[in-house]
Design brief:
It is a single chain. The chain has 265 residues and is α/β, with parallel strands linked by helices. It has 2 domains: 80 residues, no CATH class; 122 residues, Transcription Regulator spoIIAA. The chain contains 8 helices and 12 strands. A 3-stranded mixed beta sheet has the order 1-2-3, with helices on one face. Strands 6-9-10 form a 3-stranded parallel beta sheet, covered by helices on one side. Strand 4 and strand 5 form a beta hairpin. Helix 4 runs parallel beside helix 5. The radius of gyration is 22 Å and the shape is globular. The protein starts with a strand and ends with a strand.
């Protein structure tokens, strides 16, 4: 069977003829359910159609062959009609909380050097900013944060299992993590003596904190990456990127005053 999921599957129709089923939303919980159903159906000797029907009863699983899609003359979807006793609307799966057991504390480490050769630590999922160009900011709502205590435990476990010496603090808008100051202090205190380096992704200009950036620079001196996203205020307004040229200039001036000599946009 051919399945798909993730951000590219939020509009599954362009690939519907090539897919047996699609998982909409976050798969941490639904993957286990899919494996259980598939194993049960296979053990019972059921055919592909029966297995797909059983899978279609799992919330978040869309089986294209069980629906007829009707289109308007302009190519947009007019109606999605179920052909069998399957849900008329398939809603995305959303985790209520980012439980520690879903985090990969034994990440695969390649033998060859790669571009992003570091541990990725997800602080939170979702975003409240609403930038119009950002699919992830919409489909991963609502915002759910990992606790500082969980993040420290996950970092320790993943570093011990992988041997990485750098950790990237990842989220759609990392500077919006509610306990970032305390988290940085704890990470540097607990792992700094082991020469573990920490990095931040591209930063929103309107939430840029030179003090937080300085903490990260204690372990890894590098340039800053700021994200204006567009070259004019008109375009920033169009995409709902609520930052101004003045915000950018103030952020760069603050960084320069603290000794940064390289800023990337």
């Amino acid at each position: 069977m051919v399945m798909a999921g993730g951000p590219c599957a939020y509009n599954p129709e362009p690939l519907a003829d090539f897919l047996d089923f699609v998982v909409l939303g976050e798969a941490e919980e639904s993957l286990g359910e899919i494996i259980d159903v598939y194993a049960r159906e296979k053990a019972a000797g059921h055919d592909r159609a029966a297995t797909l029907f059983a899978l279609s009863q799992i919330p978040g699983v869309y089986v294209p062959s069980f629906y007829q899609v009707k289109y308007h003359d302009n190519g947009t979807i007019a109606e999605v009609e179920p052909l069998l006793q399957v849900p008329r609307t398939v809603s995305k799966r959303v985790l209520r909380e980012l439980r520690p057991e879903f985090y990969p504390t034994r990440p695969i480490v390649p033998f060859l050097g790669i571009v992003h050769d570091r541990l990725m630590l997800e602080l939170f999922r979702g975003c409240t900013r609403g930038c119009r160009f950002c699919q992830a900011g919409i489909i991963y709502r609502p915002v759910r944060e990992r606790s500082r205590e969980d993040l420290l435990r996950l970092t320790q476990a993943a570093l011990s299992a992988s041997g990485h010496n750098e950790v990237s603090l990842m989220s759609l808008s990392t500077m919006d993590y509610s306990d970032l100051d305390a988290l940085l202090d704890d990470l540097l205190s607990q792992f700094g003596c082991d020469h573990i380096k920490f990095s931040l992704p591209s930063l929103r200009i309107d939430s840029f904190s030179v003090e937080q950036a300085k903490k990260v620079q204690q372990s890894r001196r590098s340039g800053l990456t700021l994200a204006p996203e567009a070259g004019s205020q008109r375009l920033r307004d169009v995409i709902n990127k609520q930052v101004t040229e003045g915000d950018l200039l103030r952020a760069v001036a603050s960084a320069q005053a603290e000794g940064w000599q390289s800023v990337k946009l």
